[in-house]
Design brief:
It is a single chain. By secondary structure, this protein is mostly beta strands. The chain folds into ten domains: 36-116, Sandwich (Immunoglobulin-like); 119-210, Immunoglobulin-like; 215-311, Carboxypeptidase-like, regulatory domain (Immunoglobulin-like, Sandwich), CATH 2.60.40.1120; 317-391, Immunoglobulin-like, CATH 2.60.40.1120; 396-486, Sandwich (Immunoglobulin-like); 489-566, Immunoglobulins (Immunoglobulin-like), CATH 2.60.40; 571-662, Sandwich (Immunoglobulin-like); 667-748, Sandwich (Immunoglobulin-like); and more. It has seven helices and 74 strands. Strands 31, 32, 34, 35, 36 and 38 form a six-stranded antiparallel β-sheet that branches. A four-stranded antiparallel β-sheet has the order 3-2-5-6, with no helix packed on it. The longest helix is centred in the C-terminal third of the chain and has 9 residues, at 860-868.
Length: 943
């Protein structure tokens, strides 16, 4: 029963009294609970002015709503509740946002201040070449420069369709953020347009998009022998600088795919003038990536030329069950970091499969089949012609019942299994953990689970629970019962130094016993983020693009904790970007921390992400929220090389103003990769780096490559063969003296010396192991994986003395010393039986177990040096590491050890390190070791 003001009551339906006739009346007393009253105010985030007629309603219950008045104030009456209510706030001319009431007391929630971000009015018209309207055109607006996760969530892509008169309108465009419009319409060439940021206070005119009919593009695909390749899929993609970072194929592909005929010829209709990348895919060939082409101005058909594919390698295999019977229709899958190189196969009635189109290097692949546990094989070598026998085992099964805190069946509870680190790595489990929901009796069942150590999490509404580690054994079923409990809540209220709420701040919480953040949220328009967490010490991190990051050690109390955090304004770098003739230029400007130049380019976005902005119509840019430090500035503009000051900019807290970045003509670098066969060249990537600037290229089947638009200066050019850490590389330095110059570089893979052999354990080949060869008195190292027959190989080695580090997969490590003066082909390495040490790591003050602890064992001198080392990498190279492991849920660990396991080093964030003496022989098993770590004192949550 509900009153108009949302006062609410739920009572059971009365049963008919036996003494009364069925038609008789019953009087039922119903006491309505007072509605939850939430008062607040909606304001313009930029000016602080009130926002009238904003609609506020409870998410999932639009009937519980209110409107703000002319002063921006509102009073929302909603159904009574004990927990926080999530609200949606929407107003004309503003970006819609979420807000939360906080936990109410006595039917009244905290007063809210909701800061709404003004929305830019993006509108326009789509016409053909004769200015006739084009109806039904699909228009996508993808944000650029949204480098942080918070920004990617806050600045969302927009999509709409043109009307009969060709007009379109998008309401959710954010000021000061650039967008890329992608337009598709049947019968026309796809078009991409970069829009500069809309500036607050200015009135922007309509965006007029004229769609061309485009040209017919033609080409052909051949293999390395010059023979035509039929049934290849060919499509044109936007150049890399026009592709959104996390865009779908709809936003990255400029054309629909075409298929080559028997002569290898393809034809693509309606292609607009401009630059593209050609992607050619075939299941039996290695993808060459996006090959650059240009469609010139003109009429009629355009010839894109010839594209050569390298035949891929094959892995042959047979999949059988525990009784050696073939398993039909099993899925065999190779996954690459490049999606265009992913490959799959299915087993036939005999259990046989051929996984084709693979790179000519060792690969990891998985096998999945109904009724069996997933199978994973690391370091398989394709192209041997020998069949790999894969025997699947029955998966583990976990079933049980989930109860609410009150003891009743938790219907529809979400149940999720999470593996520990060892299980995750053994099963190549990167995502897609087993999940299900409970039935009407609270029961669940998860089958075909990879055998190993798992933890189960269950949640229903505001209640949740997690089990201790569960050992799941192949072919067995384990049954549990888990009772949920109310989750603890942490409410973080983030404001600026002005007192205004800070929306779209990224809030992360890492419990002290965890290796990574498990709980996160984004502040809403009222500056609030509400996280469902576990009580106890934790690290809180708050990030926002316009403010300095804030990190605190806090103690989260039971049930409900509220924490107010005021962010400090960061330093600012501002200036202008100009073209060579001095006119303003629209460019993306990035500030890279100086230390990021030492990070591999493929990891910079994740380890040292830049602060990014876009220059406005006057070329003016502002980089805000910068920590004190030194930064390399990079300006990126279409048609120009990456530009910026030669030396890093020193930001000392006061900021830097008035910088001028002048774009210049780009230089051309031509090069050739020599010493490799075409099959090897298909695995080569060339990277040119200059401080924070970098570009990549791939060679053709003859080893030739070009890199355009390089700025003048000194560049490091590296060719790397292989996708993984086992790859081999060649590096050269190239100096470009002036803008517009052309230089040449040869990247020669010298033959060098070859080291090959086999690793055995108990007389049988080691599968899934790895080797590292450290050249004595040098810093260079080379890596190799052990294949399915225990074989390994390294090529291109220098003569000299080497220390070989031989490791089992997730297990013990041993060392060998060798002298290499000529090729060594048949090195045999027999490993000793590994020792096994298990135990538990506890918090010394609370006695509670610590998960995700790092454990390293080795020789006493080496481990002691590692524990006190300033140069950790050098210490690792000199120490004799016998084994390493991560502690699992519940603090339990198991570490497998090779010879010289004399000391154990135990570390965890927020705790003091511990060194434990060991005495364990090869093949021996020791259990029950207890390690206690002393915590580092934490701060008060509200200092």
């Amino acid at each position: 029963m509900e009153r108009r003001d949302n006062a609410f009551a739920r009572v059971p339906r009365p049963s008919a009294a036996p003494a009364r006739p069925p038609a008789g009346e019953r009087i039922v007393d119903v006491r309505l609970e007072v509605p939850l009253r939430t008062s607040g105010r909606t304001v313009d985030r930029t000016s602080g002015a009130p926002v009238a007629n904003a609609a506020i309603w409870v998410v999932g219950s639009p009937g519980e709503n209110a409107l703000s008045d002319t002063t921006g104030e509102f009073l929302l009456n909603s159904r009574p509740r004990e927990e926080s209510a999530r609200l949606w706030v929407q107003a004309g001319g503003y970006i819609s946002t979420r807000a939360s009431t906080g936990s109410p007391e006595y039917g009244v929630a905290d007063e809210l201040a909701v800061a709404l971000k003004p929305a830019a009015p993006l509108y326009g018209f789509v016409t053909n070449s004769t200015d006739q309207p084009v109806a039904g055109a699909d228009i996508s607006a993808q944000p650029r420069a949204a480098e942080s996760i918070a920004n990617m969530v806050a600045i969302r892509p927009q999509r709409t369709t043109s009307a009969e008169d060709g007009s379109f309108h998008m309401a959710g465009i954010v000021y000061d953020s650039p967008y890329r419009l992608t337009i598709r319409a049947e019968g026309f060439a796809s078009t991409a347009i970069d829009l500069p940021p809309y500036e607050p206070g200015t009135i922007a005119g309509p965006v007029r998009i004229k769609l061309p009919e485009g040209r017919q593009a033609r080409g052909w695909v051949v293999d390395t022998d010059g023979s035509p390749v039929a049934s290849a899929e060919v499509k044109l993609r936007w150049p890399e600088e026009k592709q959104p970072q996390f865009g779908s194929p709809r936003d990255t592909d400029a054309t629909e795919p075409a298929t080559t005929d028997e002569q290898g010829v393809f034809s693509i209709a309606a292609v607009k003038t401009g630059e593209y990348g050609v992607q050619v895919l075939h299941a039996e060939y290695v993808s060459a990536g996006d090959l650059p082409v240009e469609v010139p101005e003109g009429q009629g058909e355009v010839d894109l030329g010839e594209f050569t594919l390298v035949p891929g390698a094959e892995i042959l295999g047979v999949v059988v069950d525990p009784d050696d019977k073939p398993v039909e229709n099993a899925l065999v899958k190779f996954s690459s970091y490049r999606r265009d190189r992913d490959r799959t196969a299915r087993t036939d009635a005999e259990g046989s499969f051929t996984l084709a189109g693979l790179p000519h290097e060792q690969v990891d692949f998985t096998v999945e089949a109904d009724g069996y546990a997933p199978f994973a094989l690391r370091g398989a070598r394709p192209g041997t012609g020998e069949s790999i026998l894969i025997q699947l085992v029955g998966g583990a099964t976990l079933s049980g019942r989930i109860l609410t805190a009150a003891g009743s069946a938790a219907t529809g509870a979400r149940v999720r299994l999470e593996p520990d680190m060892r299980t995750r790595m053994q099963g190549l489990i990167s995502s897609g953990y087993p999940t299900t929901r409970t039935d009407g009796d609270g029961k669940f069942r998860l089958g075909h689970v990879f055998p190993g150590t798992w933890s189960l999490e269950a949640s229903a509404g505001a209640e949740a629970a997690r089990t201790d580690p569960l050992e799941l054994v192949s072919g067995s079923e384990r049954t549990i019962e888990l009772q949920l409990h109310a989750q603890d809540q942490l409410t973080v209220i983030v404001t600026a130094s002005s007192g205004q709420p800070v929306g779209e701040a990224w809030v992360r919480l890492k419990p002290k016993d965890a290796a990574r953040s498990r709980d996160f949220g984004i502040t809403d328009g009222s500056g609030r983020a509400q996280l469902e967490v576990r009580a106890g010490p934790a690290t809180l991190t708050i990030e926002h693009s316009e403010h300095l990051d804030e990190t605190r050690q806090i103690d989260v109390g039971p049930r409900s904790t509220e924490l107010a955090v005021q962010l400090r304004a960061g330093s600012e770098i501002n200036g202008f970007v100009r073209s060579p003739n001095g006119t303003p230029a629209s460019a993306t400007v990035e500030a890279h921390p100086e230390e990021s130049a030492d990070t591999d380019v493929t990891l910079r976005q994740y380890i040292n992400p830049p602060t990014t902005t876009v220059a406005d119509g006057n070329g003016f840019f502002r980089l805000t929220g910068l920590e004190a430090g030194r930064y390399f500035l990079v300006a990126r503009a279409v048609g120009y090389p990456e530009s910026g000051p030669e030396e890093p900019i020193d930001v000392d807290g006061r900021g830097v103003s008035g910088l001028e970045i002048v774009l210049e003509s780009g230089a051309l670098l031509r090069g050739a990769v020599t010493g490799l066969q075409p099959a090897d060249l298909a695995q080569v990537t060339i990277t040119a780096t200059r401080q924070a600037q970098w570009q990549t290229a791939t060679p053709d089947t003859e080893g030739n490559f070009t890199i355009e638009n390089l700025a003048a200066g000194t560049w490091q050019v590296v060719a790397r063969r292989g996708d993984s850490y086992t790859g081999r590389s060649v590096e050269r330095t190239v100096t470009i003296s002036t803008a517009g110059a052309e230089e040449f570089v040869e990247l020669q893979f010298a033959r060098g010396l070859r080291l090959a052999g086999q690793v055995l354990t108990d007389g049988t080949p080691l599968v899934g192991g790895h080797l590292r060869a450290d050249r004595q008195e040098h810093e260079d190292s080379r890596y190799a994986d052990v294949d399915q027959q225990g074989h390994f190989e390294m090529n291109g080695l220098e003569a000299g003395s080497y220390r070989l580090r031989v490791g089992r997969a997730f297990g013990a490590v041993e060392y060998r010393l060798i002298e290499l003066q000529t090729d060594l082909e048949d090195l045999r390495i027999d490993l000793q039986p590994e020792a096994i040490l298990s135990g538990i790591v506890l918090d010394a003050t609370t006695g509670l177990p610590l998960r995700d602890v790092d454990l390293v064992a080795g020789d006493a001198a080496g481990v002691a040096a590692l524990a006190r080392a300033d140069d950790e990498e050098a210490a690792y190279r000199s120490a004799l590491i016998a084994g390493s492991a991560f502690g699992g849920t519940g603090g339990r660990f198991e570490i497998r050890l090779g010879p010289r396991a004399e000391q154990l080093w135990v570390t965890h964030d927020g705790y003091q390190d511990a060194l434990v003496s060991l005495n364990i022989a090869p093949g021996q098993r020791q259990e029950g070791l207890v390690v206690q770590l002393q915590p580092v004192p934490s701060e008060d949550p509200n200092p």
